[in-house]
Write a structure and sequence with these properties.
5 helices, about 65% helix
Length: about 150
């Protein structure tokens, strides 16, 4: 079974909530930023690969390939996801590598909010399963609904 990438977003939210008791606040905020990015990067990467046929290079190059895939996507929703991934990756790089991080709590809160938005956007890209009344009948036409036995007056 593959890893549930969105579990990282749950962890990011927990890190923010426990930031005063779990570990030093800045460490919790930096970790939350990183986990928020990896949650949506992992989910977006799997979707692009499995549903849109994106071929991925080795791990280090895959981040930019996934971001570019969405930023150059056919729909405005794809492009919005790509822009958010780019912003989250930038925040993650700062959190993981910069010795000084201005306003870590604000950046962590932004990252978690933006990651939640990307999750909703990814869900909107995924076609919903057909509803029972939309099941196609023979020949690809929609079946007529059954009559309820009451006449319209």
């Amino acid at each position: 079974m593959s890893f549930a990438w969105l579990d990282y977003l749950v962890l990011a939210e927990a890190l923010l909530q426990a930031r005063m008791t779990l570990a030093p606040e800045e460490a919790c905020c930096r970790a939350a930023i990183s986990r928020a990015y990896y949650a949506v990067y992992g989910a977006a990467r799997m979707r692009a690969r499995d549903q849109e046929g994106l071929r991925l290079p080795p791990a280090a190059e895959a981040h930019q390939r996934v971001i570019t895939h969405y930023r150059q996507g056919a729909s405005p929703l794809h492009r919005a996801i790509g822009d958010s991934l780019r912003q989250l990756r930038s925040a993650r790089n700062r959190a993981d590598y910069d010795e000084q991080l201005a306003r870590p709590l604000a950046l962590a809160q932004f990252a978690v909010r933006r990651a939640r938005q990307v999750v909703r956007q990814l869900e909107a890209l995924t076609p919903a399963p057909p509803r029972p009344h939309d099941v196609r009948g023979p020949g690809g036409t929609a079946s007529a609904p059954e009559e309820s036995g009451t006449a319209d007056i």
